[in-house]
Design a protein that fits this description.
The structure is a single chain. The protein has helices at residues 12-53, 70-97, 102-119, 128-156, 162-189, 198-216, 218-223, 239-253, 258-288, 293-321, 323-343, 349-376, 383-392, 399-412, 415-420, 423-433, 438-444; strands at 4-5, 8-9, 61-63, 66-68. With 453 residues, it is mostly helical. The chain has one domain (18-444): Up-down Bundle (Growth Hormone, Chain: A), CATH 1.20.1250. This is MFS transporter. The chain crosses the membrane at residues 73-93, 105-124, 130-148, 169-189, 201-222, 261-283, 295-315, 327-346, 352-374, 395-412, 418-436. Its main location: membrane. It is found in: Cell membrane.
Length: 453
């Protein structure tokens, strides 16, 4: 497209670039929740609360027919939040597609989610119930805001730049999450000098992530623009009835986009593996390998900054090989990682750091490219609806992954076979991904085919 068309300057690229910069800030904002709360602090802190409630790590929770150890309860909580997401996110996506002011909806969901995340600060002693409410609804609203945020990506970028924009957003997010983790590392490691107990320091770190998420969300809220809905199904009734009516129409119409459905099925598997590894990483490192909280935080911090570079590298590789091929390479690396974890010696810090670096390289890249690749396979005007199904299998992990991990852990009483069992998710996801005909899927969705696919 020429810079001047009919004597009038084409300002669309400049306007898109400005919106892209504003959009990156939401990845910066929400990454702190994933890193500080979801990955580093919440798991060990919640297990401590649960152990206090049942009189120690040998105690059991009797929940109906289930008899659960305290550490297993954590994974079942994550499973509950994801099942709720699967029910709530699709109608939310249908509603979001009918809204021009998506930035306001994004902000409202993010701010409500940060409120629930902040509740974890008040969970002390044996009050695991309040912490459970905070993480379940925090995860749910995190996923809900993610649906709206990802649906904005196709509105602010053309097909040829989708991988680059998505990868930069993920990279920016890892940089923001890493920066806050540096600050939290200073607070946690220096809690004695600050006259704080270890528990209070951990709670303050989690509170800071909630505040970070809420505060930086103001940037996209103020700087993104409204985008009027397009190709919306005409359905009578109030907003709720129209949303469910559009959802029903989309479900009927999904058969017209088999490649998008095949990718969703592939994503269901390989993303479950990725998210379960992320959710269990610190617990695996502390409970199975015996590493201190200091080592775990330092490793996650390293992963954040390696993932920053990894996301950018994967974005460039996608520009040469196409997103699908690059994702498949990433899944091969993930399979190698969980295999190495099966044999990783306890207490060996250098090998643990090397494994963490490998995770960092593929973590941001596979997730960023999955987002941009899927955006090419879905029809215009229904971005939020399709991303709602995408996110029902994302953030907080789908119940397949966490349930598998929890069952294997309960049966073997070891984290090693539990984490190795996740290789099945990467293998099955990769095989399904090979069945996606990228060019066909893009054309079926009515999108332009990028120069490299």
């Amino acid at each position: 497209m020429s810079e001047i068309d009919g004597g009038i300057a084409n300002l669309k690229p400049l306007a898109q670039a400005e919106e892209q910069k504003a959009w990156y800030w939401y990845d910066w904002a929400n990454s702190a929740y994933t890193t500080t709360i979801g990955t580093v602090f919440f798991g060990p802190y919640f297990i401590n609360l649960a152990e206090n409630a049942v009189g120690g790590e040998e105690g059991r929770f009797e929940l109906g027919p289930l008899s659960l150890p305290p550490d297993s309860l954590f994974f079942w909580l994550i499973t509950v939040s994801t099942i709720l997401s699967a029910v709530i996110l699709p109608p939310l996506g249908a509603y979001a597609d009918r809204v021009a002011n998506k930035k306001r909806l994004l902000a409202m969901l993010a701010w409500t989610g940060s409120f629930f995340a902040a509740l974890i600060f008040f969970a002390t002693d044996d009050n695991w119930q309040l912490a459970a409410i905070g993480i379940v609804f925090g995860n749910l609203l995190f996923a809900a805001a993610g649906v709206v945020n990802d649906s904005i990506l196709p509105l602010i970028s053309d097909e040829n730049e989708r991988d680059r924009v998505s990868s930069r957003g993920w990279a920016f997010g890892y940089l923001g999450g890493g920066l806050l983790l540096v600050l939290n590392l200073v607070v946690f490691l220096g809690h004695d000098a600050l006259a704080l107990s270890e528990g209070l320091a951990a709670r303050l770190c989690m509170l800071s992530a909630a505040a970070w998420w809420a505060g930086f969300t103001f940037i996209p809220f103020l700087r993104l623009k409204d985008h009027p809905p397009v190709d919306v199904e005409h359905v009578e009734g109030n907003a709720l009835k129209r949303s469910f009516g559009q959802l029903a129409a989309t479900l009927r119409d999904m058969r017209s986009y088999p490649m998008a459905l095949t990718f969703l099925l592939a994503y269901l598997f390989f993303n479950d593996g990725i998210q379960t590894v992320i959710a269990s990483a610190t617990v695996f490192g502390s409970e199975e390998l015996g590493h201190s909280q200091t080592i775990l935080i330092a490793t996650i911090l390293m992963v954040q900054f390696v993932a920053f570079g990894g996301a950018l590298v994967f974005g460039r590789l996608a520009g040469r090989w196409g997103a699908k091929r690059t994702i498949l390479v990433g899944l091969g690396i993930w399979s190698t990682i969980v295999t190495i974890a099966l044999f990783l010696p306890a207490g060996n810090v250098p090998l643990f750091l090397i494994l963490g670096a490998a995770i960092g390289i593929v973590l941001g890249g596979t997730q960023a490219l999955a987002r941009s690749y899927f955006s090419l396979l879905i029809p215009r005007g229904k971005e939020a609806e399709y991303f709602s199904f995408y996110h029902a299998m994302d953030r907080g992990t789908s119940w397949f992954g966490t349930a598998t991990f929890g069952i294997v852990l309960a049966l073997t009483d070891s984290y090693r076979p539990a984490i190795f069992a996740l290789i099945a998710f990467f293998v099955v996801g990769g095989l399904l991904l090979t069945r996606v005909d990228t060019e066909r899927g893009i054309r079926e969705a009515g999108n332009d085919v990028p120069a490299v696919i």
